[in-house]
Amino acid sequence: MAERGARLIVYFASLIVLRFGGADKESERISHYRFGGFVGTGIRGFTPFRFSVEPVDTLAVRGLPAVLNCSAASDAPVRVEWKKDGTFLNLVADDRKRQLADGSLLISTVVHSKHNKPDEGVYQCVATIDNLGTISSRTACLTVAGLPRFLSQPEGVSVRSGGTEMLSCEVTEELVPFTRWERDGRPVELNARVIQLPSGALVISNASQSDAGLYHCTIDGLGPAKTTEEAELQVSADSGVEEKLETLQGPVSVVKVIGESVLLPCVMKGFPVPVIRWTFNDRPVDESRERFAVIGGGSLQIVNLTAEDAGKYACQTDSGNMTSEIQAELTVHVPPRFLTRPSNTYAQESMDIIFECDVTGSPPPTIKWMKDGDTVIPSDYFRIVKQHDLQVLGLVKSDEGFYQCLAENDAGNVQASAQLIILDLASSPAERSGPTPSAPRDVVASLVSTRFIKLTWRLPAEPHGENITYSVFYSLEGTNRERVENTSGPGEMQVTIQNLVPDTKYTFRVVASNTNGPGESSTPLTVATQLEVQVPGPAPNLQVVSVSTASVTLSWDRPSTGNGEIQTYRLFYSEKGHDSEQDIDVTGLSYTMTGLKKFTEYSFRVVAYNKHGPGVSTEDVVVRTLSDVPSAPPLNLTLEVLNSTSIMVRWQPPPPGTLNGELTGYKLRYRKGLRRADAIEMSTTQLYQLIDGLEKGKVYTVRVSASTVNGTGPTTEWIAAETFENDLDESQVPGVPSSLHVRPLVNRIVVSWTPPENQEILVRGYKIGYGIGSPHAHTVTLDYKQRFYSIDDLDPSSHYVITLKAFNNMGEGIPIYNSATTRPQSDPIDPDIDFYELFNNPYTPAPDPTPMLPPVGVQATVLSQDTVKVSWADNSLAKNQKITDSRYYTIRWKTNIPANTKYKMANTTSLFHTVTALKPNTLYEFSVMVTKSRRSSTWSMTAHGTTFESVPSSAPKDVTVISKEGNPRIININWQPPTEANGKITGYIIYYSTDVNAEVHDWVVEPVVGNRLTHQIQGLTLDTTYYFKIQARNSKGMGPMSDGVQFRTPKAEPSDKMSSDQGLLVKPGHPTLPEHGIGSNMDKPGITGSQENHLLVIVVIVCVGVFTIIAVVVGAVLCTRRSNSHQKKKRAACKSSTSSHKYKSSSKDLKPPDLWIHHERLELKPMDKSPDPNPVMTETPIPRTAQDPAAEPSHQRRGHEGEDSVSTLAGRRGVRPKVMMPFDSQPSQPVISAHPLHSLDHLHHHHHHYHLPPRGYLHHQIGLRAPATPSTLSDRPPSAESVRNQPPAPEPPVAPSQPSTTAELEKTEALIKEEEPPSINPPTAHVRPTHPLKSFAVPAVTVSAHNPSTYESALPSTPLLAQSVKMASIGTLNRVRAPMAVTVPSAPDQSETSKMLDVTYETDELSEEMAHLEGLMKDLNAITTG
Question: What does the alpha-carbon distance between residue 927 and residue 938 come to, in Å, rounded to a whole number?
């Protein structure tokens, strides 16, 4: 008994583990807890099996031994083997390799030569426990160092005292660790001044006489030492002669692993001794950090690398008159690391399990799965899910063993293993404590589709219990690997098997289980899935070839699979980096696309279309258009006169998108004078160039152009600059700055100054000293152009002393002092200081009585979405506007949004400047001022320019999805515009799909106009997870998509709707009810045909019968009163026949009130004459389903806008209800209507059963307005295929003019009598219960579904009707109450109806009726207000 209980516990525990995949530590703990205690009863536990030591990458030396360590730990005996390059080693036949006792591999003598490398390769250790399984270790690479040889010999060099020199020792990469240097026969001691580079070269910085001597490089440790020739290093005295800057060794891009060290060399030679600075991603490197150090005169060393250290490093060198910058990329790789390891798992046969394996690393690791040492190949039953997890479907006994997850990237590889045990829980009948169920009966496939099958069955004949659960076992026909699907709850006798293959046979069997265990299996049932509609396959052999700079040629072959003739091909293409995809239809098998951008990557794919729709897309093919010469010159060319013989030229690259190829360099041409002369050409790859050797006091003009492999692009305009007549004096230190001003704030002090009064002495920079009580605590060095500085991170309420002094190569000048006390902490936070507003001019010159005139005629010309060209004129120049002196211009610009935006500035020596990096669709203001020597002008008049629009650079935000109250198949999606719209939003595109990983072109698309921020989506499937994304567009294109929003529709429709969907007729030609009949519970979850449901049906039938009897009685009484009223009015009409003509002629002026019946709130409202032009919430031009209001003809919309029925004045005359609700007192309207509010709540879920109304109703209705044409809908939206195949309903004929005379009415009466069907059925309606003062009964007007054409011909649609339908947006859309099916009193019988039609109603009778209704409305209004 105890053993049977243990087996039962194991069974249910295994279901729990399998339910959650057994993929986490908790599942493994549960597995050990639940199953570990039953080892003695036949359930074996997991076997500990792992590697305690794994091999690592090893560098071996030829002729010496090498060892690869490996050791496996387990309670059972372990057999260890070795693989090399994926093949097991035969250690018996190889006398140089043998396996040690712990499993390690020993190579006694490493063999390596140029043509024979038997020991070099990738090794792996494999451990096996017999009859249990196998695991493999991580892989290790064995590399053998090459022959010791030098690629070049060091050469003798001479270095100045205090300078830097390098001696090369060029060897292969694997020999660098074995190299060392000797001087005069003794080893060279390496330190921060003398270093060895990664290439093996020796660098000596700050050289002295002690460094002179004979040097040679030695390779040691690879057998006999090998030495280079000796090279002499001579150290000479400092002669003071200037030496040109020379790069001995610059940084190169390098790849390192996290935790290692790196040395980025920067060895520069020259005099004066160059100053070297390092930047990281354009920011200065903080050399004070512990892991960073500059050694060897300028090389950067970083130890213990982290992932954040990866980036672009630049070595910037300045030797006074020459500068240099060399960049290099540092890439840091991170070895793979497990976030989730696979866990040991128990399972049963036929179950599905998932082994989880989540790994991180850089680059992203690749994952491979192995079972017992063999690679797992994905198949129908072994699948890789979520790109890294292993799913095993339909377990069999042979699936037992050890599964391993191996992750690998360029930095290394790791492995983790888990054991799978298949439990055999079958027990013999003698072991069972009680009987088990017999086989389930009548197993049938109730629904067969292309990819799923729904099975149903009946209770076993002998269930032997109440809480019966079921398991469905299924397999492909002809295979023995079964899968199992369990029902969701006890007692449920249906299940849907998903993810099947179309046109494939499957075998199913069902097993019932009770508390005693599983019972007998049902007879196997073989069912074949349906053949899927054949759409074309992918077009093979798609080739894209660039034929020019702006065009490509595409070609492909006809798809090999498909059903029917290919109608067209759709070519999709997009620019790389843009999410928006464009398409074009092509009829042939090739196409040449033009109008593309130059040297730009595009992605292309082709989809074939046949009569069934789009086929399978091809894979994306990426191609780049051909390159061309640049189409624009470089930007912002400026000239800076350094001295009497040199000019520094600087510029910026051409605008983005105008290079049209890979930039190969720049060409600079300069000439003396302003006229044509022979120009000198220079080439460079930098953004600056020093022109030296010029004549004193001469004007030079310069222009620059960019080059690609195709040639040189357009050049800039000639820019002029004049060299100085004489160089500034540097034989003495600069004077004291002429002024020093301070502005204290809470945590900083803003300092500004003016240069020394003697402008003839060269100033190379300024030094600011500051501190509390003493100015020597901190020092800051600034450029000679700077005129202000913000001293940050100060203490509040503290007294600081500040000093400023100018310096040059001769030394520092006399300082100027000032002091300030920072504000207390209680003061407001320091504002953002706009230095231009604070000091008016950043380069504040000394006061001058004659300031310069500001530039005039400032113009801002917009060039693109982020570029504006600012130009101006200078009245202080000659008429030709040629600049011949050293003046320069400062341009400032800003935008007024937000209001506190700071100014940005740039300097130029020309009369124009191109401002880049602006925001699209933004208004900017620009102003200019000129500076010459110590004089500056005021700012010019401002010019304004608005940049062009650009595609939105951000996605719509705050996307929310909510379900429609009362209708779970409809959702409302709301959002806010993108933060960076970059223009006026012209529309939005909503994407939604049930598969979040689907390609973008496979999502359903809903376009929305740009002024809408909400949209309604209908026809969704119940109990389904949808994913929504939104994309904004403007006149320039599509922006990025928003993040996906997940929403799951409810599991079931509201109970009121389900009841109203039963027992309804369906109009021919419309979607029908399900095949299992009206009122069937087949498609309604949770209904199992129990005793309680039968009682509920009986109660509903009795209630409906009682209501029907009451309604018939009330209807008969009302009809009798109606007949008497008609007889009285007829006699009154005969007495005043002459006056009737007068009423007829004036009947047009009669304005009876228009009544509106709100089917949600059941109140009367007068109709507005101006209908709402947008009756629905959003405009959706693309119809999705047949029920979409935008896709239906107008008469269909009018037909089912009224959920319950249509009732007008004539209908109320037949059976007059007692009105007990308030209404709004509004001016009367010319048309009387009683239509319910247009609502989207029930467009897809309610059936309307119309019957022909009584003749009395038709007689009056023709004179006023025609009712809406009915439309019938099914209780569920059709699929996308049915929507495409369903023809649109015909448009109703144009309404003729209304009859205005008695003769015309009589003719119409006769026509109706002839076409009336013989039988009339009682109508039904939905009446929503609400407050007694706001409800009344209205009989539903019904039209027979058997003869719709008769009704439509007799009752044409009128324009007034269409106008009233547009008013359907009045009211509250979301206020929904549960409908209740009731029976409305029947219409008068045939004889009474005939008598009513015999009576001719004059216009005065209609007028009397109108007046009566108007009085009734006033009374109701008085009752409500009282």
Answer: 10
Amino acid identity of 188? V
CB 169 within 8 A of CB 197: no
Length of the chain: 1426
Q: How many CB atoms lie under 10 A from the CB of residue 574?
A: 19
d(CA 182, CA 219): 11
pLDDT digits (tens, 9 = 90+) for 556-565: 998 876 657 8
Left, alpha or beta for 1332 (phi > 0: left; psi -120 to 50: alpha)?
A: alpha
Q: Give alpha helix (H) positions in 129-200.
A: none
What DSSP character marks residue 599? T
Cα distances (Å, whole numbers) of residue 875 to 906, 1155, 1352: 21, 78, 84
Contact 172, 146 (CB under 8 A): yes
Instruction: Note the pLDDT tens digit of each residue in 689-713.
Output: 999 999 888 889 999 999 999 999 9
Burial label for 1013, CB within 10 Å (0-12, 13-18, 19+), is middle
In degrees and rounded to multiples of 5, residue 616 shows phi and psi of -85, 135
Q: How far is CA 485 from the centre of its chain?
A: 35
| Distance between CA atoms of residues 1281 and 151, nearest Å | 72
The tokens for 33 are: 């807890």
- Rounded distance, CA 754 to CA 162, Å? 36
Q: CA 690 to CA 670: how far, in whole Å?
A: 11
- pLDDT band at residue 1094, thresholds of 50, 70 and 90? low
Q: DSSP code of 1157?
A: B
What is the 8-class DSSP label of residue 253? -
Element (H, E) at 800: strand 799-808
The structure tokens 């039938």 sit at: 1101
- How far is residue 41's CA from residue 21's CA, in Å, rounded to a whole number? 25
- 8-27, pLDDT tens digit by residue? 444 444 444 443 443 344 34
The Cα 650–Cα 369 span in angstroms is 57
Q: Which residue has the higher pLDDT, 594 or 1396?
A: 594
Phi and psi at residue 1101, to the nearest 5°: -65, -40
Half-sphere exposure of 1164 (CA within 13 A, CB side): 31
- pLDDT tens-digit map of 175-209: 888 888 999 888 998 888 999 888 888 999 988 88
* Partners of 1017 in beta bridges: 971
Backbone angles phi, psi at 1008, to 5 degrees: -135, 140
Asked whether the beta carbons of 390 and 403 are under 8 A apart, the reply is yes
Contacts of residue 642, defined as CB under 8 A and 6 or more positions apart, other chains included, come to 321, 648, 690
Whether residue 408 contacts residue 378, with contact meaning beta carbons closer than 8 Å, is answered with: no
User: Do the bridges between strand 226-227 and strand 788-791 make them parallel or antiparallel, or are there none, so unpaired?
Assistant: unpaired
SS3 1125: helix
pLDDT, one tens digit per residue, over 297-354 is 889 999 999 989 999 999 998 887 788 889 999 999 999 999 999 999 998 888 889 9
- CA-nearest of 491, 227, 451 to 1085 is 491
Q: Which two tokens stand for residue 1241?
A: 């709540």
Q: Residue 1288: exposed, middle, or buried by beta-carbon count in 10 A (0-12, 13-18, 19+)?
A: exposed
Cβ 346 vs Cβ 421: under 8 Å: yes
